[in-house]
């Protein structure tokens, strides 16, 4: 709850987590009970599982939120805590993100978080989406997406915030920013991340049409960096990570920041306005109707 409140109250999770080192009394470090509990539980949580190998400095974060790893407020809160903890651990240098749900990396934002919810709740949700993006896009860690299933919309966003993307070569899987197909609009920072990855013209076509690409198409436009057989996604990610970690951290981190800072600054200086935009857009009757129709289509397709 304290962490949810940190998101709600605009403070970064880092300020909350840093209370651990900044709160001192008589030379002793006071540790918040909430944080103690979280730290003890740092390897497993309900929706995210983190395996950190101290000997390599690499953490593997597995999304395990059935059925499709949709990004709900609870999921995003846990995810941000997980990343923040790794970021604060000086022995951690690399993060591999993957899924342990069959066929799906992540279905993107949880549509139920945007349908029939109060403006306050929508605002809280959107702040958590922003936080996830900010954490990953500005991370000092080497981040690799091991995309072992479909990755539409917010799932694609999560993937393109990483430094490198390896996708399972299975033609049934797809990846892309398909928001317009739901009757909604990818915000500027989704668009900017996509542009930084595949270029302006490809992004323009992809976003207007809400295109989902199969792995070969995604590789062709540079949306993913490498395709491998499904059972080799994680091993390839681990081997690739070793190559990235051979570069001195400080040089790589400064370079990453140089490439990404203008895009990050654009959101950090417009965060509140972006939340307001989202809330007023998503709560419109016409948009709620589009979401309802899309949800019905998902159910029908299943049947
Ligand atoms: N949110 C909530 N529930 C979902 C979502 C989702 N994103 N995706 C799937 N589900 C549900 C389904 O409705 C179904 O529910 P139930 O079991 O109750 O019928 C269950 O998950 C399983 O789904 P499927 O049977 O479809 O599972 P498959 O394995 O066959 O397919 C897919 C997996 C490919 C991921 C498929 O479910 C799919 O295409 N899902 C929709 C993905 C999508 O379009 N996501 C877009 C979300 S919007 C977003 O991320 C960015 C929004 C930016 C907002 C900007 C506004 C200003």
Catalogue the unreliable spans. 6-12, 14-43
- Helix- and strand-based class? alpha/beta
Amino-to-carboxy terminus distance: 37 Å
Order of helices and strands: HHHEEHEEHEHEEHEEHHHEHHHH
Structural commentary:
This protein has helices spanning 2-8, 13-17, 19-22, 33-40, 73-88, 119-137, 154-160, 188-198, 200-209, 215-221, 233-245, 249-268, 271-282, 285-302, and strands at residues 24-25, 28-29, 48-53, 58-63, 94-99, 142-147, 151-152, 164-168, 175-176, 226-228. A hairpin with a 2-residue loop joins strand 1 and strand 2. It has a 6-stranded mixed beta sheet, sandwiched between helices. It is an alpha/beta fold. 40% of the residues are buried. Helix 5 packs parallel to helix 6 (119-137) and helix 8 crosses helix 9 (200-209). The structure holds octanoyl-coenzyme A. Octanoyl-coenzyme A is lined by residues 67-68, 70, 103-104, 107-112, 150, 152-154, 178-179, 182, 184-187, 278, 281-282, 298-299, 302.
